[in-house]
TrEMBL record:
It comes from the Eukaryota. Gene3D superfamilies: Spermadhesin, CUB domain. It comes from Engystomops pustulosus. Keywords: Disulfide bond, Hydrolase, Protease, Repeat, Zymogen. PANTHER family: CUB DOMAIN-CONTAINING PROTEIN 2, OVOCHYMASE-RELATED. It holds the Pfam family CUB. Residues 1-85, 87-198 form the CUB domain. This is CUB domain-containing protein. GO terms for molecular function: peptidase activity. GO terms for biological process: proteolysis. CDD domains: CUB.
Length: 199
C-alpha cells in the first residue's frame, strides 16, 4: 500500500514487467486499487504477461498494489516506481475526490492541474463541489474550469472562481475535464469535489 499526503495523487510507473501470461490474468497478476480496500469498484486494473502496463494515476492519496502468483510457472516479476503528483492525472475509478494542491491549506501560486475523469463507455460523470474558496469573483486570475468532454472548446467550458460553490455538473459523455489554475499572488483554501460515474 502506498500512502501520500491527503489531497495528492500517486503516479505508478512500471520499469520492468514479466509475469506468467493468461488471457484473463488468473494465475500470476498485479492488481492496482484506489484506496486500501479491494472493492471491485476501486479496481484500476489487473495486469499479467510481458506487456508493460501504462502509467497509472490514483484518484486518492492511497494506492494498493497486490501481487499474486500461483505455484506453477514463474517469471522474473516486475519493478515499479511511484511519485506523489502535486495534482492532476487521468482518473478512471467509479468515484473519487479531487482537491486543489495542499488542500485544506492555501494552494500554491503558479499551479496548473488537469484532471481528466474517464468513465466506462455510455456512462456519465457527476461532479459535486463541497468546498470552494478561490481568489476574486473575476476569473482572470485563479479559477477552476470544467469542460464537458476531454477538450477545452470554449463553448463547453465553464469557469468558476471566488467563494460561490459551482453547481453540480453531469457530463453528457463519459469524459469530464477539470482544470485548476492559480496566478503569481493571492491564494485561498482552494476546493474539494467528489466525482462519481453511472449510467
Amino acid at each position: 500500500m502506498i500512502v501520500v499526503s491527503e489531497g495528492s495523487t500517486i503516479q505508478l510507473t512500471f520499469q520492468e514487467f514479466k509475469l506468467e501470461y493468461h488471457d484473463a490474468c488468473e494465475y500470476d497478476y498485479v492488481r492496482i486499487y484506489n484506496g486500501a480496500s479491494r472493492d471491485e469498484g476501486n479496481l484500476i486494473g489487473t495486469f499479467c504477461g510481458s506487456q508493460t502496463p501504462p502509467n497509472l494515476t490514483s484518484s486518492w492519496h492511497v494506492l494498493s498494489v497486490i501481487f499474486h502468483s500461483d505455484k506453477h510457472v514463474g517469471s522474473s516479476g516486475f519493478s515499479a516506481t511511484y511519485r506523489k503528483d502535486i495534482c492532476g492525472g487521468v482518473l478512471t475509478s467509479l468515484s473519487g475526490v479531487i482537491t486543489s494542491p495542499d488542500y485544506p491549506d492555501n494552494y500554491p501560486n503558479n499551479a496548473e492541474c488537469h484532471w481528466l475523469i474517464r468513465a466506462a463507455p455510455h456512462s456519465t460523470i457527476r461532479l459535486q463541489f463541497t468546498d470552494f474558496q478561490l481568489e476574486s469573483q473575476e476569473c482572470n486570475f485563479d479559477y477552476v474550469a470544467v469542460s464537458d468532454g476531454s477538450g477545452q472548446e470554449e463553448e463547453q467550458v465553464r469557469h468558476y472562481c471566488g467563494t460561490t460553490k459551482p453547481p453540480d455538473t453531469t457530463s453528457s459523455s463519459n469524459q469530464l475535464l477539470v482544470v485548476f489554475k492559480s496566478d503569481f499572488n493571492i491564494g485561498g483554501r482552494g476546493f474539494k469535489a467528489y466525482f462519481s460515474s453511472g449510467r
